[in-house]
């Protein structure tokens, strides 16, 4: 997960009962496997003393910053969102390195063409 990030900032009040997602996410960030995937990723923890809700802010390697309300979003959901966006970034980078345009635009007529590996449905099968 950290391999897609350059910075993680976790903010919470330790006395706030809504910090579960922050604590779980911090544990995931501190896991050996996560740290090994990107040792350069900065993980910052800010312990607050006010009533601000717990918040997790991540900065992707391309500089895009995203904030998550940790009271409403479970740590696993945040992790999955990061992995999904990270896979998108990897795909984008792969296309750019190959000299291809990004995003890939597929003409409408090509979307409707039959694919060689798929047999078209027979009329009888379509009725069912």
TrEMBL record:
Q: Which InterPro entries match?
A: mtLSU_mL53, Ribosomal_mL53
Q: Where is the protein found, in the record's own terms? A: Mitochondrion
Keyword annotations for this protein? Mitochondrion, Ribonucleoprotein, Ribosomal protein, Transit peptide
Q: Which GO terms describe its cellular component?
A: mitochondrial large ribosomal subunit
Which Pfam families does the UniProt entry name for this protein? MRP_L53
Which family does this protein fall into?
Answer: Belongs to the mitochondrion-specific ribosomal protein mL53 family.
Name of this chain's protein: Large ribosomal subunit protein mL53
Origin species, per record, is: Coffea arabica (Arabian coffee)
Q: Which gene encodes it?
A: LOC113713786
């Amino acid at each position: 997960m950290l391999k897609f990030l350059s910075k993680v900032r976790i903010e919470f009040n330790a006395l706030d009962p809504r910090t579960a997602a922050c604590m779980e996410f911090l544990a995931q960030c501190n896991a050996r496997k996560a740290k090994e995937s990107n040792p350069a990723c900065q993980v910052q923890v800010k312990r607050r003393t006010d009533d601000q809700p717990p918040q997790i802010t991540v900065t992707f390697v391309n500089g895009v910053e995203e904030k998550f309300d940790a009271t409403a979003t479970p740590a696993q959901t945040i992790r999955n969102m990061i992995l999904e966006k990270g896979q998108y970034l990897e795909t984008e980078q792969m296309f750019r390195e190959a000299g291809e345009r990004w995003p890939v635009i597929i003409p409408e007529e090509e979307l409707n063409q039959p694919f060689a590996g798929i047999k078209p449905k027979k009329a009888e099968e379509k009725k069912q």
